[in-house]
Model the fold of this input.
Amino acid sequence: MRITVDRERCMSAGQCVMTAPDIFTEDEDGLSMVEPGREDDGADPLVREAVFACPVQAISVADDERGVREPHDIRGTRDGR
Ligand code: SF4
Done:
């Protein structure tokens, strides 16, 4: 599952980096980005935690079968399906 961060929406709150430090990092401006090589690790449970933690719903995941799943889509179901 592909992870994307909407950097226009990100407000540098840092919760994603604290929640999943192996997945997310911050650039020199403090904006979140996915660690290179981890873009397809959206199934990692910590990514879901980061989606919940982000105060501005800037993190999305997508899979090939269902397309982009917006944060409210992920938040709305317990198992994320
Ligand atoms: S938690 Fe959201 S707002 Fe904060 S750094 Fe991560 S993506 Fe940006």
Remarks:
- The pocket of iron/sulfur cluster is lined by residues 5, 10-16, 32, 53-54, 56, 58-59 (CB under 6 Å).
- The mean pLDDT is 87.
- The longest strand covers residues 59-63.
- Strands lie at 2-5, 24-26, 32-34, 59-63, 67-69.
